[in-house]
Amino acid sequence: MDAIYRARLEELLQDTPIVDTHNDFAWLLRINLHNQIHKFGFNFNSNSIVSHTSIPKLRKGRVGVQFSSGFVECKNADQYSRNFNLKSSVVRDTLEIFDITKRLCADYPEHLKFVTTCDEAIGAYHEGKIAMPLAIEGLHQIEGSLSVLRQYYELGIRYATLNHNCDNPFSTAASSIAAGLPDKGLSPLGVECIKEMNRLGIMVDLSHTSYKTMHDVLNVSQAPVIFSHSCAWALTHHERNVRDDVLLRVKENRGVVQICFFGEFLAQDPDHPTRASINDLVDHIFYIASLIGWEHVGFGGDYDGMEVTPVGLEDVSKYPDVIYKCMERGASDEDIRGLMGNNLLRVWKSVEIISDILKSKMPRGRAIEAEWEGRKWEYFEYLQDVNEVFPGSKSIYFPSHKWLPSNH
User: Fold this and answer.
1) Catalytic: 264?
2) Which cofactor(s) does the record list (predicted)?
């Protein structure tokens, strides 16, 4: 029987890539090596790599498209603080994650290819390469500015998670709800941000968001949404997971839930909340597929973003084992194609098409210029004498600026 499953998978892989939407290896390089991948004997194509991710492990796992998460942690020492004017290095650190991902692709061109479109990803796969698009994990990484979001898009991000483990000016995090804080959902600025993501062609990712944020986004988004790495709340009562009523709305939205491999989101034994296995993962896949259809499930591993992996899911080489388990439980080839990657690719392509339609209806280059009302605009006093743009333009915002003692 195993030979039959292997033969089925080989046939499916002829035209269907395995797509994973969440991997934190680039962040691991940053924290371990300070982005210095030409020192210390680092070789991404070596069997000496002990982290979850390496080229040999990706190849063994038959991965065709691997989104590189541009994760940078929330910078406030108080993760529940709502002081969003905190000065931090988050944009710099995010750019370093983008840089390390692109340099990995440049250093191993026979295996990796940086891509920015769905068609480029599929093309790279048919060239025998692993496509690597970018993402960010939390809008704290744009520091309240849609201008930063637009520049991240230009640099290659193709999905943006609205939150990590902190609130931001746009939306409420699941971690805040777990801590007993109120669920404020999506803010008015968040509504404008979703519109801008739809216009740009950035997939909206609802993993890490609060329950109300999920519903608020589904009320607003004109494009299908994703959960880049989440599981079913009905099986594992964790705020990071997705409740049934939200899942049903994901079906209506034609979105996709990329199932996370993190043990705490999979474990079904309340006495052992971190003990999970590959069988728990397959349970979550089948639960969501049974509720809303196989067209709405995929893989969102979270490898190298977790320290301990579930049994049977030790690294990125294990995707075929998950697929064999699904086949064993009765999933059809068409079901498996969607799970492997076709569902995510469908959403990605839909987001691109909707972006083109939205742009065609707006004046060329017209962006959404909403800004966070709580932002502090600080300048040195000597800059009060700068020229006006047009008569009276300095009277618009200058009175509300905070003028700092001159540094000249």
Assistant:
1) no
2) Zn(2+)
Residue 208: active-site member: yes
Summarised one tens digit per residue, pLDDT across range 13-63 is: 999 999 999 999 999 999 999 999 999 999 999 999 999 999 999 999 999
Active site residue 229: yes
Q: Is 215 annotated as catalytic?
A: no
Contact call for residues 267 and 273 (beta carbons, < 8 A): yes
- Marked catalytic residue, from 20, 137, 280, 295: 137
Q: Which helix or strand (DSSP H or E) is residue 387 part of? A: none
- Torsion-angle region of 82 (φ positive above 0: left; ψ -120 to 50: alpha; else: beta): alpha
Please indicate whether residue 24 is annotated as part of the active site.
yes
Ordered domains of the chain (ranges, CATH) = 2-374 (3.20.20.140), 377-408 (no CATH)
Q: What's at 275, amino acid-wise?
A: R
Considering the entire predicted model, what is its pTM? 0.95
* Cβ pair 71, 24 in contact under 8 A: yes
Residues 131-149: tens digit of each pLDDT: 999 999 999 999 999 999 9
Identify whether 22 is a catalytic site residue: yes
Does residue 38 have an active-site annotation? no
* Catalytic residue from among 52, 140, 164, 238: 164
3-state secondary structure 360-381: HCCCCCCCCCCCCCCCCCEEEH
